Amino acid sequence: MMEALGFEFFRNALLAGLLASVICGVIGSLVVVNRIVFLAGGVAHASYGGVGLAFYLGLPVLPVTTGFSTAAALGMAWVTLDARERSDTVIGVLWAAGMALGIILLDLTPGYNSDLMSYLFGSILAVPRSDLALMAGLSALVLLLAGLFSRGLLVMSFDAEFARSRGVPVRFLHFLLMALVAACVVMVIRVVGLILVMALLTIPPFMAERRASSLGGMMLLSAVLSAVFCVAGLYLSYALDLSSGASIIAVACLGFVLSLLVPAGRGRRGPA
Hints:
Structural class: mainly alpha
């Protein structure tokens, strides 16, 4: 491991994994407790349209995909609030539309895009310093917004109807949460890829939920677990010359299976 740290690309990958781990711990926990995993999956796959748009226009992928994913997330947030009886169908349509748009735009883009597969399956070992700066800024923004509205998000996560009765702006917070999910998805795509993004976003929070007694504890434990999976997966991919994104998720899945064999603690009981 010390030998690997001598390479700049490995240090960049390690930092990218740790940044993504913090965000996954916070946002992934909110996704799990609010039971919007399918909704987050829709945002993740629709974001492929942003990748295609960036390649087609010849613009930086991360900012364009962030904007596109945020727009898709807000659209899905509106659907789930105002058309709940058809929300799963509409989310599925937006999911497919985003993927189709991305594929069509990439087909229309001249030349061969050698980086395309990295956005499907991850390429954490190829994260440049410029992307690290953007990821750090995005992480700081997400954590700032989550911290500013933490109380409202906390109450909404456990009982949305009670939150409304207490004057909590549930509608606004729902849109905010989906925007934060979009930002998180864009970051994690660079680490494990579009295909595997939901695994890193949900496995650590699920494991943490079974053993944490509060949402804050769940977020902290989830972030630690994500970091462990990223570091272990990176080392495994370096040592055995394997795909980094797949190695990270394989370690996470192994951790998930092992966690099922260990009796859970008291678990999350409420916002206290």
